[in-house]
Amino acid sequence: MGTTGAFQNIRVRFYLAQRLLAAIFVLAFICAGAQAATRAQSWRIDEAQTWIGFKIDAVGFPTTHGHFAHYSGQVLIDFDRPAKSFTTFTVDAASVEVGSSSFNEFVKSAVLLDAERFPTMSFASTQVEKLDAHTARVTGTLTMLGVSKPFTLTVNVETDPSAKGRAVAFVAKGTIVRSDFGMKFGIPLIEDALEITVKTRALTDE
Amino acid sequence: MNEAAAAATIAWPLSLRLAHWLSAILVLVALGLGTAMVQFVHDPAARFELTQTHKSIGIIVLALTVARLCRRSLGRAPKAKPATRSLRVAAKATHIALYALLLLMPVSGWLMATTTPVRVPTVVFGLFALPYPLAPDLAIYGLARATHVALAMLLAALIVLHVAGALMHALVWRDQTLARMWRKPMRR
Known about the structure:
The complex is a heterodimer. Chain A has helices spanning about 5-35, 100-110; strands at about 40-45, 50-60, 60-70, 70-75, 85-90, 95, 120-130, 135-145, 145-160, 165-175, 195-205. By secondary structure, chain A is α+β, with helices and mostly antiparallel strands. An 8-stranded antiparallel β-barrel of chain A has the order 1-4-5-7-8-9-10-11. In chain A, strand 4 (about 70-75) and strand 5 (about 85-90) form a beta hairpin. The longest helix of chain A has about 35 residues, at about 5-35. Helix content of chain B is about 70%, strand content about 0%. In chain B, strand 1 (about 125) and strand 2 (about 130) form a beta hairpin. Chain B is elongated. The chains are: A alpha+beta, B mainly alpha. The interface of A and B includes residues 62 and 189 of A.
């Protein structure tokens, strides 16, 4: 191949790159427009009705139920386009409550939550699918002990008729395989899988 | 034999009498707690707390038993009251077995605590952490647990035998055997 051929090849590549860039710009504009037109509405979280809990079974030890007292969260709901809905929750690992102070301390220690090194655990949705009138599947990323993994929650959605559409109750359930996040303590006597339940109620003034 | 040595052969030293009764209380509490916490306590936090207390008591029993055996080896035990040979042998065997169990119960418990995959630090009454020399191992843990439970039942049976013997001395034979574990016997 001569110099002319090589030169032409570069020109073709340059042309393609230009077209690609243009396409990306157009796509970005369309997306931004769509986003603006169907912006999901942000709802307040009713803290009195929120519970972020877990349940874990063990051999030779009673099933342990616990919850996190301190958390923050955000709920964006788009009823017309459920896929545009979004949620994120962050809990303070040190706020874990399992029933007594020394048991709390143990659960917070390095072998389990390691709250000193990893003060928070968080979940952020990446996909919301409506399964039926009252159920949605929320897929997202769970970050625990510094490890982020895909995580799926099944969410039961109930609108509160007495609140005239201004309140929605959610009960989200999912199973965490803790060894995926490097939490291997007690396996196999303590189950590797633990159930989490997030109950919350979202409110709006509109 | 001088007078002090003669007195020593009829009375238990104060330190051993105190250690005996302290040990009796701790052992009964540890046995009761150990049984109750696994049989009747279904609240995880309560189970956790009681297990921690149970482990602390066990370690105190271990230390106390070692101290008792050291102190006992320094002096002579009071002479046993005359009895049939078989009763003397039975009493001796029970006493040796009791000492052995007071060592083996905490040691098997410690072995459980160090080999369980659910390794929770044993901080004796919040003061110091017990070393865990062995790595978690489910097979050894299972063995240690079975041993601990079996020895607990044996210990409970031997305590019944020991108490029955003491009561026989006090109520049937009406001698000083039980009394001398309370106080220095009166000279006759």
